[in-house]
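*** Backbone structure tokens ***
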Amino acid sequence: MITTCLVKRFFLILTLCLCSSCHGPPRGASVANKITNMKFATKAIHAGVEPDPTTGAIMTPIYQTSTYVQESPGKHKGYEYSRTHNPTRTALQNALAALENGKHGICYASGLAATDAVLKLYKPGDEIIATNDIYGGTYRIMKRIFEPFGMVFKFVDMSNVINVRNAISEKTKMIWIETPTNPLLKIVDIRAITNLCREKGFHSVVDNTFASPYLQNPLDMDADIVMHSVTKYLGGHSDTVMGALITNDDGLAKQLAFIQNASGAVPGPQDCFLVLRGIKTLHIRMQRHCENALEVAQWLEAHSKVGKVYYPGLPSHPSYDLASRQMRGYGGMLSFELKGDVYEEAVRVMENLEVFSLGESLGGVESLCTHPASMTHASIPKEERLKTGLKDTLIRLSVGIEDVEDLIADLERAIG
């Protein structure tokens, strides 16, 4: 009985293999080859994804395995160990590369792991110039992890490229751009900075987390590396933590893949599957994020108790024209301050919000409220925060995709 079952199973597998070889790749497998000619929405759904060759499954399987059987020592099917390569991760890396119009995508266990990999490209004595209004975790890893090893970091206001040019020295090796910035939503002229980098002969890296590939593609503006906290808009559902780097430079890609494998900060296949699912709706989600955020920003700007709104989609924003040229929309992130700049009043508003949840992170379908000074940017010394304009009363909103009327009603009730 057991022998009969094994024979039947063998012939079933053989039939599947023969059918695959007789009829060629499953329908849709050629989509990935044509992806560079497709519009963004089509890329979001199809990039990097091919039907499973054995079953025809349209969704990429979760290859929950640590190792792979080899036919002979060193003779395998392209996969040896899942720290180095995993088919689910490969599909995601290809998808992210396509969305950013890049050749190579490399995924890491978190956004900071991706940042860590970039910084490992450099050595003691090398100087890096970074945006002064920057994510607190990026500041922390630069100042408290890599600076003690001898690397030098300068934080400058990049809203004027002259500030960047004046900060350059003979030791400068890279410029780290974040735009829109976190949390003051400043806009940096990517093309102006990348031109400067090429003129001087060093790298440019753009943290594109706030914009997502839907709104801007820094590689198209000659950036060397694009970094994403995939946790945010790319995942989009607040259910995974991941980072990614995308580049067109073969040499940089080889170095970053080596660091990915050697340091081991890789995402698991389940998380990769979740992000593959998330990016299929990236274009739809981002459109709604942008629409809602603009309405919320306009409502806040007109409110009698609101002192200042930071949102690049408002004509009052100092870089509105640049944002309109550089981006395809203004994003779902905004920050605001109340009149009087009273800390206790800002806390009261955040505690009274109901639809907006008070929490870390951003970019999920649900709306979030964050207090940067005590949460996302607490690792930046207060005197440094104040230099950039980040007050203890600043409130940051990640505007979700709910009905905007409910979001505005929630803010109206909380602000009073």
